[in-house]
Amino acid sequence: MSLFEEAKQIDSTMFKIFFDRSPCALIVTDRDLLTICANPKASKLLNQSILSDQPFLSFFDDTSKEKIKHYLSTSQFVESLSLDVALINADAECCWLELAANKHRSDSEVIIWSLSDITQRKAREKELEDLAYYDGLTGIYTRRYFFQLAETQMAQSNINGQSLSMLILDLDNFKHINDTYGHCTGDNVLQAFCTLISSKLRKSDIFGRIGGEEFSIVLPNTTQHEAVLTATRICNSVEEYFTEHRVTVSIGLVTLSNPNCTFKQGLKYADDALYQVKQNGKNGVSYAAIGYLNIK
């Protein structure tokens, strides 16, 4: 055996030892993404035996498959890449992976994939996302995110030439409920109220909590007449549902079709209409017709 062949054999043996004992999960594929070999760490991470010629993409969900194929087919993947991907194996404790790929040169016949479990990180990111987008008590949109969605919808309605209706809802005498029955009961009322209202809305409607007991709804492609009917149904449903604590709701609304009217202006019109309901005995609906108010 020549010195060159001997050195090559030693290199191959060392690679095999490193590959099998590596603390990282490693899979080697050819350029067609068929598995050549995998180390024990990879089999443990994926909770399955990994066979030669097994399609590498078979481990991942459809979205992740397309993401991997996209990067491999573009110039973005020259020698290495890193992606967050989701596994298709629901039985595995690991659901999300950070997937890194390396080729020792751009024309390499093999690709070495490194897999890292990022399931906990993804779960934490989801928790933080929920805190930013959804109200912790009621589960509906937070004030900030509601405003973002509402402004986007309003811009889209202006482009499409469609009317948009905006409602502001305020629970009547809510402070009395908290003072009389306690804040725990008050929280239960808010949760039940939001569940009830959500059941009355379309998927396209946007519902958010903008204050303690104040809420807002955006109804895309909705005329004033339709908005008044929706608001009236909500009022009646709330009064019928909360008989024990005599909960009612006051609603002010406005229908916007003028592209020059801003979201904040629309909100002010609806708020003025809500004030009129409060002044006229509560538990009702008032709509602003951009310049004057009508009580229902």
Task: State the main characteristics.
296 residues, alpha+beta, six-stranded mixed beta sheet, 22% strand, disordered C terminus
Could you explain the architecture of this structure?
Helix content is 44%, strand content 22%. By secondary structure, the chain is of the alpha+beta class. A hairpin with a 4-residue loop joins strand 1 (25-30) and strand 2 (35-38). Helix 6 packs across helix 7 (183-198). The longest helix is centred in the N-terminal third of the chain and has 19 residues, at 3-21. It starts with a helix and ends with a strand.
Identify the strand order in the major beta sheet: 7-8-6-9-10-11
Domains (count): 2
Identify the CATH architecture of the largest domain: 2-Layer Sandwich
Strand percentage: 15-25%
Question: What fold name stands as the CATH topology of the largest domain?
Answer: Alpha-Beta Plaits
Q: How many H/I helical runs? A: 9
Low-pLDDT sequence parts: 291-296
Counted beta strands:
11
Q: Describe the largest sheet.
A: 6 strands, mixed
* Integer average pLDDT: 86
**Structural class category:** alpha+beta
Written as H for each helix and E for each strand, in order along the chain, the element string is HEEHHEEEHHEHHEEHEHEE
